[in-house]
Amino acid sequence: MARDYTMSFRKSDLRKPEVVEKALEGPVEIVVDVQTSLVLLPLQRHENTEQIRRLTQTYLATIAALGHDDVSPLILGDVGFIADWPPDERAAFAVGFGEALAESLRTNDPAPALGYVRIMGTRRPSIERPSTPWDPEEHNALLPERVRAAAPPRR
Amino acid sequence: MIAFERINARNLHLLDSFESTPDPPHWVNEVEEIAYGPGAAAAMLDDEVVGWLIYDDEDLIGVAIHRPESATRHAELLHIVCVRYAERNKHRGRALLERLLPHVRAHSDFDYVVWLVHPDNSPMNTVSANVTDDPPQVDRRGNLLYVWP
User: Fold this and answer.
1) Which of B13, B118, B137 sits opposite A132 (nearest CB)?
2) Which of A70, B10, B54, B75 is disulfide-compatible with B62, CB 3.0–4.6 A?
3) What pTM value is reported for the model?
4) Is B76 at the interface with chain A, CB within 8 A?
5) Is A108 helix (H, G, I), strand (E, B) or coil?
6) What value of ipTM does the predicted structure carry?
7) Torsion of CA B111, B116, B117, B118, to 10 degrees
8) By C-alpha distance, which of A28, A44, A63, A15 is closest to A107?
9) CB contact under 8 A, A143 and B65
């Protein structure tokens, strides 16, 4: 398996400023002995990877739940809100989750998948604006005649 | 230059960067809450709801959501146009609407675009009046109804 380290250092090099500088650019390998190495990398990068790993677990739980009618929200964890969604919407959610997660993996940034989950969790049956609701009967009557007489949809 | 990118699973999270208006009037709060949450979610799940991220050059400045007008289904309802708080009052509302309206029509099944504006939303009422030929109609709540073209 290919290893993607910026550089490799020995344990005795750890006091050299260069080690930290290189580690900030990307992971560096610290060779302890013939059989053991450590990895030095920015904490944020490590935390991002861990968060994406957890999101991947959630994604796999989502996929596994697709074939079941009755799924516990507990099994779905952070996406438990889809447990009572119609099957087609659950499937659409899973497709989008996969795309967002792929973007997170590509960039090593959990934001796309986290944002997708958060925003999809706000879904509700109506997106009507309470102060300016569209009332078909009232508002269609107010529309100019050319609109009310418009031809059916172009496509 | 105003440009649009359709909301999708890979860019949906960008809405998380949108700041809420401090101490907003209730009608602004409603728009922001829907635009940054359930409206965007609907654009992902409902084939008839379409959402766009709005850019000015490279800057992400807002979001728009539209859907067919219900009942007669002879027009597209521009349901939400929300410019993020930090990007308001930059005198580009008219340019934005002049770009957005044909864009919405081109991505709908209808020849007309209609939208409702709260009476206290002076900036949107001003630019709406500037880009439409018909005077707005006022509904029983006092909201103004615009039609384009």
Assistant:
1) B118
2) B54
3) 0.89
4) no
5) coil
6) 0.91
7) 180
8) A44
9) no
